[in-house]
Write a structure and sequence with these properties.
Elements lengths: L14 H4 L15 E7 L2 E13 L5 E5 L5 E2 L6 H10 L6 H7 L7 H13 L17 H9 L12 H14 L12 H14 L6 E3 L5 E3 L1 E2 H12 L6 H11 L1 H4 L5 H8 L4 E5 L3 E5 L5 E6 L7 H11 L5 H7 L2 E4 L2 E8 L2
Antiparallel strand pairs: 1-2, 1-12, 2-3, 2-10, 4-7, 5-6, 8-9, 9-10, 11-12
Helix pairs in contact: 2-6, 2-7, 2-9, 3-6, 3-9, 4-6, 7-8, 12-13
Length: 342
């Protein structure tokens, strides 16, 4: 990898892949580099473009592609920061409960059981959640759920653990629970500060996430820096407590069939969290970190791009190949793949 503080491409990537510039007339955004290509029967039938950054252990930019300085909505990759804010606000969470507070859970039985317990422990119920009714995030769980005759529920939405923790800390502090998702609420103001402190940059924009919670925009460099901040934080800090809970209980952060779980379980010391619209952030135990976003939001390209980026970081473990495998089917036969292009 080459050292650079500005967006750059590794050798071997042609100009057509490494991105262009605005034509100055139409105002179109610069063409981002191809991070993954779709290959069917030996024919490249599509591309997924995006931006990526890799940080060295000291936090400096070691490699970049595209425009990692541009702000993006990290979506659920912001959840570790949101969980740290809940701890800073005084809620005593640890273990599986803290991991679930930072989760995009799959809706498996053990996830839903613990969300219910967390609510009950604080005198709350699923009716207090302001998550939108949804099906389990995991397709296998969703099929099982529907086959059992269930309908979309607030508790089944993948952010229900985060919302349960947010409601609980509001009760702890005497804050209004009806407005806990308002950007001006004391909790969300604290989340805003935690995000900025971890990322080392100001929040570029505030939007609304799919679960209804405020969403803070960061650059990919800032997102990678935030994950590095969490893994290198001192023992006992909110950031380190969240990190340790997620690494100790990765199945509560994601689910039994999810890459975040596999990576944190099989590469000791790793912190990993994906977000909607194809965002991914990872930090290794030594402080090296990466973040990327697939511009078209296609999550099917996440695995191959993540596996390639981990390889560039020198992560040599069987789980990397497992994460990177994205076959394409033709009938019942495997006829191609989605593969990294950098």
């Amino acid at each position: 990898m080459t050292s650079s503080a500005a967006p750059s491409s590794p050798s071997g990537i042609s100009d057509s892949l490494s991105g262009g510039t605005s034509d100055g007339i139409s105002g179109r955004a610069p063409l981002l580099p191809v991070l993954a290509e779709v290959v069917r029967s030996g024919f490249v039938e599509g591309h997924h473009r995006g931006s990526l950054v890799v940080l060295a252990a000291d936090g400096s930019v070691e490699m970049s592609l595209g425009d990692p300085e541009a702000p993006v909505f990290p979506r659920s990759s912001n959840k570790p920061m949101q969980a740290a804010a809940v701890l800073r606000a005084g809620l005593d969470l640890s273990g599986e409960r803290l991991a679930l507070a930072a989760a995009s859970h799959s809706g498996e039985g053990f996830h839903l059981d613990l969300v219910r317990k967390m609510l009950t422990e604080h005198g709350l119920s699923a009716d207090d959640l302001q998550t939108p009714p949804d099906l389990p995030l995991d397709p296998v769980e969703a099929e099982t759920y529907l086959a059992a005759g269930h309908v979309r529920e607030r508790i089944t939405m993948n952010c229900s653990g985060k919302h349960a923790a947010m409601l609980a800390v509001c009760l702890h502090n005497g804050w209004d629970t009806a407005t806990y998702l308002d950007p001006s609420h004391p909790l969300q103001q604290l989340v805003h500060r935690v995000v900025e402190e971890a990322a080392g940059e100001p929040v570029a924009a505030v939007g609304t996430d799919g679960c209804g919670a405020p969403l803070m925009a960061l650059s990919l460099v800032g997102l990678a820096r935030a994950f590095r901040t969490f893994v290198t934080a001192e023992q006992g800090t909110a950031e380190r407590r969240v990190t340790d809970a997620m690494r100790a209980h990765p199945e509560y952060v994601a689910g039994t069939r999810r890459p975040d779980t596999w990576l944190m379980r099989e590469v000791p010391g790793t912190l990993s969290k994906m977000g909607a619209e194809a965002v991914q952030a990872v930090a290794l135990a030594d402080g090296r970190a990466l973040a990327f976003k697939i511009d078209d939001g296609s999550t099917r390209a996440l695995g191959p791009v993540l596996a390639r980026a981990l390889g560039l970081l020198g992560v040599d473990a069987p789980v990397v190949s497992r994460i990177g495998r994205a076959p394409l089917m033709g009938g019942s036969a495997e006829v191609g793949e989605i593969r990294a292009a950098f």
